[in-house]
Amino acid sequence: MKKSLFYSPIDYARNKYLKYITIIFLLTLYLPILNLIIFSFNDSKRNIVWRGFTTKYYNKVFENDVLFSAFLNSLTIATLSTIISTILGLTTAIVLWKFNFYLKKYYDLALLFPIIIPEICMGISMLVFFNFINWPAFEIWPLTLSNIIVAHVSFTFPFIAIIIRSRLAILNTDTLEAGLDLGANNIQIIRLIILPFIKPAIIASFLLAFTLSLDDFVVTFFTSGPNSVTLPVKIYSMVRFGITPEINAVSTLLILILIFCTFFVTRYLSKNNREILDD
After folding, report:
1. What's the Cα-to-Cα distance from 147 to each of 16, 38, 82, 138, 236, rounded to whole Å?
2. What is the dihedral of CA 33, 36, 38, 41, to 10 degrees?
3. Which of 41, 65, 120, 171 is the most exposed place for a label (fewest CB within 10 A)?
4. Residue 234 and residue 63: Cα distance in Å, rounded?
5. DSSP letters of 128-188?
6. pLDDT of 136-188, one tens digit each?
């Protein structure tokens, strides 16, 4: 019997070599993270030898005002920059999808620059830009974070625009024409057809932009000041003196926040997809 050139997922699942490769890949990917979480409970100032179980380093994290302030700065920057980026990315995606204008293809290319440019170049360029325009040094929080927010918006909103635009590209224009034939105006078309259709893309891109902003180090390192230290920058300054369980505890909390956000969005999108199929 002649063998088929195409294999089903079940055939791949029965391949023992593929199973070994998958296990090795998963261990390489997740074992360092698991090691970090475990040693955050290590009762030792150094993460070399396991000395026993303790949660005191988590208590130190919440009692450390400087660390908590850096964590609050990171959450504030990520939230504000993501909201602004979502608005800009949504409007950009709709404009690029709906309208044809002069030099549109070059604008599409320019939209990719913040994504493909190395972060070190992005950070230096933002530093030079802020110095060139003499960006004011605010003393009132959260205005002290304004330059970092602007820098984060500049490299996160293209991700949102590209994701939402790719979702709009599969929207059937016959649906829009049917809405117009039924008497809907432009606002109703956007509110009742376009926005519900692209809502999964908006949520997914929002989460992606929030994650990119929350754990960004390079761009933040070049644009932050003494009154605008974020958690990644603070962790970097702590790591230079050695990795302690306190650093692992902070990193674990950050990982848990991202896992919770991912789980929440995944559940929401799955529920939304089920409702669409039921309708």
Report:
1. 52, 36, 14, 10, 20
2. -150
3. 65
4. 15
5. HHHHHTT-----STTGGGHHHHHHHHHHHHHHHHHHHHHHHTT--HHHHHHHHHTT--HHH
6. 777 777 777 888 888 889 888 888 988 888 888 887 777 777 877 777 787 88
* Amino acid, res. 20: Y
Which domains are assigned to the chain?
Answer: 9-57 (no CATH), 58-278 (1.10.3720.10)
The amino acid occupying position 28 is T
Distance, CA of 31 to CA of 179 (rounded, Å): 52
Nearest residue to 93 (alpha-carbon basis) of 179, 157, 177: 157
Q: pLDDT tens-digit profile of 180-230?
A: 777 778 788 888 888 888 888 888 888 888 888 888 888 888 888 777 788
**What is the residue whose two structure tokens read 């979502």?**
86
The residue assigned the tokens 């929080």 is: 141
For range 35-54, the mean pLDDT: 76
Name the phi and psi angles at 53, rounded to 5: -90, 135
Instruction: Report how far residue 208's alpha carbon sits from residue 196's, in angstroms, rounded to the nearest whole number.
Output: 19
Q: Is the peptide bond before 136 cis (omega within 30 degrees of 0)?
A: no
Give the pTM.
0.77
Contact 96, 107 (CB under 8 A): yes
How does pLDDT run across 228-268, given as a tens digit for each residue?
Answer: 788 888 888 877 766 677 778 888 888 888 788 777 777 76
Query: Is the pLDDT confidence value at 44 over 80?
Result: no
Kind and range of the H or E run holding 96: helix 65-98
Yes or no: say if 215 and 156 are a contact pair by the CB < 8 Å rule: no
- Helices 195-214 and 146-168: crossing angle in degrees, nearest 10, is 140
Distance, C-alpha 189 to centroid of its chain: 30
